[in-house]
Amino acid sequence: MTKPAETTEVQVELPADLTAPGAARAATRSVLPRWRLAALLDPVLLVVSELVGNAVRHGRPPVGLRLQKAGRGVTVGVHDEASTPPALAEAAPDAESGRGMLLVDAVASEFGVEQIDGDGKVVWAHVDPEAEAP
Asked: Which of 4-18, 49-63, 91-105 has the highest mean pLDDT?
């Protein structure tokens, strides 16, 4: 008997409203334990929350989440239709927002933006327990 191949990629279309980060976190909580990567839940959930929140607040719908198992790590990709990349900037000490990409930078081994001609962008981050943080 042949064992079915393990799914190493999941894509989720998200609502174009403020419930999207919660839906993305729920999908992530469901997938990572099946991939035996539950130890990465906290940093991956942080990345998912920040990237999806940015896409909903600053991007343009539709918003989609892609989770990919990559060795012992996970690559998170969030697509939206806006072409403007997120900014990695320091927020004022009393600012209530503006630190999301700094948090992603702190927990991801790498991150970036892939521009898609005529179709917005994918902001991605890779969380890998074996890689050194930037």
From this structure: 49-63
50-73 per-position pLDDT tens digit: 999 999 999 999 999 999 999 899
The dihedral over CA atoms of 107, 38, 64, 8, expressed in degrees to the nearest 10, equals: 110
In sequence order, what are the residues at sequence separation of 6 or more whose Cβ sits closer than 8 angstroms to the Cβ of residue 131? Answer: 73, 109, 110
Do residues 125 and 110 touch, judged by C-beta distance below 8 A? yes
Domains of the chain as residue ranges with CATH: 9-127 (3.30.565.10)
Can you tell me the distance from the alpha carbon of 79 to that of 116, in angstroms, rounded to the nearest whole number? 9
| pTM assigned to the model | 0.88
Shortest CA distance to 78 belongs to which of 131, 28, 35?
A: 28
